[in-house]
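Re-running the complex after MR caught last week's input typo. The corrected sequence lines follow. Everything else is unchanged.
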Amino acid sequence: MRSVMKKWKMGRDCGYTTDDRLAIARLRGWLATVLAVFLGMVAVNASSGRHGNTRLAVVEAIVSGLGFAGIVVLSWMVVLRSGDEYRRALLSKALTWGVGATVALTSIWGYVETAWPAAPRLPMLAVPTVLIFVTTAAKVLVFRRELATKDAAIG
Amino acid sequence: MTNRLREMRAQRGWSQAYLAERLEVSRQSVNAIETGRYDPSLPLAFRIARLFDLPIEEIFNEE
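Corrected-run output:
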């Protein structure tokens, strides 16, 4: 438990400035908003039973696109405002992996939907959500890898 | 690229945390540079050279 807390503290102390914290707070607020809107739209879709070719679908498409763009822009703000250049490099790596994996996953799913009409449809609003989870996973993996190797080398 | 950062820091009896504070970077940055996982930017390399009062090429070697 102590070692977990130590690693968590080391991660938190990794060169954050007030600007970083503000940018991160904004990003978290945006992510929470996208998730809330997504869940709301899913609930509306489920209760109305509507699928595609509706005004709701257009709203979904716009919200999804804005969500995707907003997350990428805010994530880059966090990267650019990070005062520590090594941390910037790690965040850039995580963001690149996150965006790349999201594009790959959603493209593959698109082909699956086209080839097999019976395959479950990926809601448009799921794309920013996939981006959030994949990028978070990429960040955890990238930073964990660094934290795992650094303890042995502290002098 | 290789460097002598760890060796020079040890000679002065400085900790990674102290060096990081002097360079205004995180301790993780110092550790990553020392272990060769990260090559610093030119401005940071100049700051390191100034701090140790040595030319850059005596700290960093291209290999």
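None of the earlier attempt is carried over here. Helices of chain B lie at 5-12, 16-23, 27-34, 42-52, 56-59. Residues 42-52 of chain B form the longest helix (11 residues).
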